[in-house]
Amino acid sequence: MAGQAGISLRWLNDYACVLLRAADVALVVDPTYVRPADVGEVDAILITHEHYDHLDTDIVSTIQSRTGCLVVADPTSSQLLTRFVPGDKLITVEPGSQISVGSAKVYVEECNHPPARTPVTYIIELGGVKVYHTADSLPFDRMADIGATHKPDIAFCTVGVAPGTSPQTGVEIAKLVRPKVAIPYHTLKKADLEVFSRLLAREAPDIRCVVLAKGEEFTYP
């Protein structure tokens, strides 16, 4: 992809670990239950909250020490990471924060996941593409404003595991955000991905659904 606009992405586990690559920058979100070697070289690790399926301090430390990358995290996760990541490489963010990672821009937004202490979601802009990583979030009204402001090309929508989430709540996220492409994730059941696809086709047929297998590469556009 050198010299070209666009990105590739992979969903690497059953939860919210997403690897995003453009021509000159790579980021991974919430690397848990993955081999660091499968993540490869990245410029930053983004953490959405402190739960076991989103934050593994040993994996973060292994990736960071090997690559020298930045680690960007919500306040609770950042506190937990202070013993594992050099201070000059750890950035604490809250909703409203904005940072740059090479040519990529990261906008930090709110998250509706009550079991977590300080959860966040991320709008990630790289390779001319905007991706909305919604962590474990349930739909909430401000997602419509986030969608209208950032106009994401791709949104990852939680469809399971987290309390209250389902294929239907994932579809509600897509309907609020209005991305060009909606990708269901965060589930232990393949059937949840398929139900999301059917519901989205019925309720928002103008939004393209992409169902990914773990490790499958998707390129956009």
Structural write-up:
It is a single chain. This protein has helices at 36-39, 57-67, 75-81, 142-150, 167-177, 190-203, and strands at residues 7-11, 18-21, 26-29, 44-47, 70-73, 90-92, 98-101, 104-109, 121-126, 129-133, 154-158, 181-185, 208-209, 217-220. Strand 5 (70-73), helix 3 (75-81) and strand 6 (90-92) form a beta-alpha-beta unit. The longest helix has 14 residues, at 190-203. Strands 6-5-4-3-2-1-14 form a seven-stranded mixed beta sheet. It has 221 residues and is an alpha/beta fold. 25% of the residues lie in helices and 28% in strands.
Low-confidence stretches: none
- What is the radius of gyration? 16 Å
Neighbour order of strands in the largest sheet: 6-5-4-3-2-1-14
Number of strands: 14
Report the span from N to C terminus: 12 Å
What attributes characterize this protein structure?
221 residues; alpha/beta; seven-stranded mixed beta sheet; 25% helix
Short description:
The protein has 221 residues and is α/β, with parallel strands linked by helices. 25% of the residues lie in helices and 28% in strands. The strands form two sheets. A seven-stranded mixed sheet has the order 6-5-4-3-2-1-14.
SSE topology sketch:
Elements: E1 7-11, E2 18-21, E3 26-29, H1 36-39, E4 44-47, H2 57-67, E5 70-73, H3 75-81, E6 90-92, E7 98-101, E8 104-109, E9 121-126, E10 129-133, H4 142-150, E11 154-158, H5 167-177, E12 181-185, H6 190-203, E13 208-209, E14 217-220
Parallel strand pairs: 3-4, 4-5, 5-6, 10-11, 11-12, 12-13
Antiparallel strand pairs: 1-2, 1-14, 2-3, 7-8, 8-9, 9-10
